[in-house]
Every structure is written in C-alpha cells, then in structure tokens.
Amino acid sequence: MTGLSEFAEAIAKGALRVVDLTHTLDPDFPVIILPPEFGQCARFRMEEISAYDHRGPAWKWHNISMSEHTGTHFDAPSHWISGRDVPYGSVDEISPDRLIGAVVVIDCSAGAAENDDHELTVEIIHAWETEHGPVPRDAWVLMRTDWSKRRGADYLNMRDDGPHSPGPTPDAIRYLIEERDIRGFGTETIGTDAGQGSHYTPPYPAHFYLHGAGKFGLQCLNNLDQLPPTGALLVAAPLKIKGGTGSPLRVLAVVPS
Ligand code: 23J
Ligand code: MN
User: Is 89 in the pocket of ligand 1 (CB under 6 A)?
Assistant: First the structure.
C-alpha cells in the first residue's frame, strides 16, 4: 500500500494533528495600505442574498468580494514584475503537486517582540541550520513572529513613515532561493516583505526575488506557534482564478502529535 490509509487513520486517531494556519475572512481584518498614489487592496465583504426568507424560503447564502491579496493568502509568481514571464506563474496554472509539501519554521518571535522592524538575516538562518540541519530543497519556509496575535491598528503598525513589521533581508531571501531552492516563503504579517520593505534594494526584495525565481508567497498566516521547526506537511491550494496573481485560501499543516 501507499501509506495513505495509515495517514488517514493517524489523523482520525489524533496521532497526526491538523493545524489551521488561516485567519477568518472578516471585514475587520486589516489589508495592506500602499502609498496613496497606488491602487488599493479591497477588504473582505459579504452581502446576504437570502436567509430562509421571501428572497429564498428554504436557503441562506451570501455574495462575497475581496482582493486576491485579502486575509490569509497565496502569492503567485505573476504577482510581481520580476515573475511576469515565469511559466505557469498564475494561480490557475500551478501544478497541483506543488500545493502540498514539506514545511519548516524559523522562530523569529523573540526578535520581533523586541523590534517591530526585526530582520530575518542569513546569520539567523545559519544558526537555525546548525540546530536543525539544512533547509530542505523544495520546502516551504515560514517566518514565525507571533504577529498573528496582534489585533487592530497594531497589525499594520502604521507610523508617519509607513508600516513597521518584521521581514527578511534581501540576502536572506536570496540565500533561501539560491542555496536552498525553497518552494516558497510565508509570514504572519501583511506581506512576505517587512513593513519597511520598500526601502531595501531592490524594493520589496521577498516579492522581487521569490516571484522572479518562480517561488510562492503566503501572508497573514496564523498559529505558527503550533508548528514544529521541521517535520510538518503544508497544504496551500489557492482558488483556481484564471490569470490570478494570488488568492485567499485555507492553509493547513499536518503535524505529529
Ligand atoms: C502589492 C504591492 C506591494 C506589496 C503587496 C502587494 C503585498 O504584500 C501582497 O499582498 O502581495 S508588499
Ligand atoms: Mn499578496
């Protein structure tokens, strides 16, 4: 056999735990705010069509709308100019086998608690690898900051000079791509880049390098404190939007109990 019946049984018996890495889609959940000269991301909206009433006596349903980049969401290569010509670069074109894979977690929560602009550096990745071994090829790498525990204005953390939230340095992202050939990079913050990521060279280096190399992004993740550093499996399957640059989605991790 393939082990799949054992896998299903392990989940049913609780030997494997399924952790939901998704925030609830809610009109109050913050969206990224870009400088005013740019187009803006729409919040989640829900409108009642009927609720067991004269509009539909036996059924309740809603119309919903949002951006591709609202809430817990997936970034495809075509989201960034560096990835505009990447083959199979939009969400509808990604091969389904790339939507399930290994995941490792780098815990940056202590640094992020001390400094809103805390950076994931190559040195921090090296220290992680000394403890846990090399980041596996084709794995998702998630940056834990505990930012998902923040609520309201503290999440974007907007100041006069723009948003302040942790993120990777350009060198750290290049290391993960060029030396480790990761599948994608995910964060608990509003972007894969730091709040001040527009000030790096290039601007928004995580978006620029990841998507230029055909890698994926995950943002606004939840519950990363419930994941082990290595050994979990990630399921991240965006909606099949024709030509879509990203999508809200349910992100699940399967972890040993
Ligand atoms: C557009 C422009 C800049 C950024 C973003 C979107 C995101 O973070 C996103 O949701 O992909 S930084
Ligand atoms: Mn995005």
Answer: no
CB-proximal residues (5 Å) to ion ligand 2: 69, 75, 246
Q: Is residue 207 among the annotated active site residues?
A: no
Does residue 222 belong to any structural domain of this protein? yes
Cα–Cα distance measured from residue 50 to residue 131, given in angstroms and rounded to the nearest whole number = 55
Provide the CATH number for the domain around residue 204.
Answer: 3.50.30.50
Quick check: is 76 in a domain?
Answer: yes
Q: Which of the 8 DSSP states describes residue 4?
A: H
Tell whether the model's pLDDT for residue 1 goes beyond 70: no
Residue 2's pLDDT band, with cuts at 50, 70 and 90, is: confident
Q: Which atom of ligand 1 is nearest to the CA of 204?
A: 12
Give backbone dihedrals phi and psi of 50, rounded to 5 degrees, phi first.
-155, 160
Pairing label, strands 184-187, 140-144: parallel
pLDDT tens for 116-167 read 999 999 999 999 999 999 999 999 999 999 999 999 999 999 999 999 999 9
Each residue's pLDDT tens digit, 197-240 = 999 999 999 999 999 999 999 999 999 999 999 999 999 999 99
Structural domain for 122, as ranges:
17-256
Atom number, ligand 1, closest to the C-alpha of residue 79:
11
Closest ligand 1 atom to 193 CA: 12
Annotated catalytic residue, options 79, 118, 207, 211:
79
Residue 69 Cβ < 6 Å to ligand 1: yes
| C-alpha R_g of the chain | 19
Q: What is the largest CA-CA distance in the chain?
A: 64
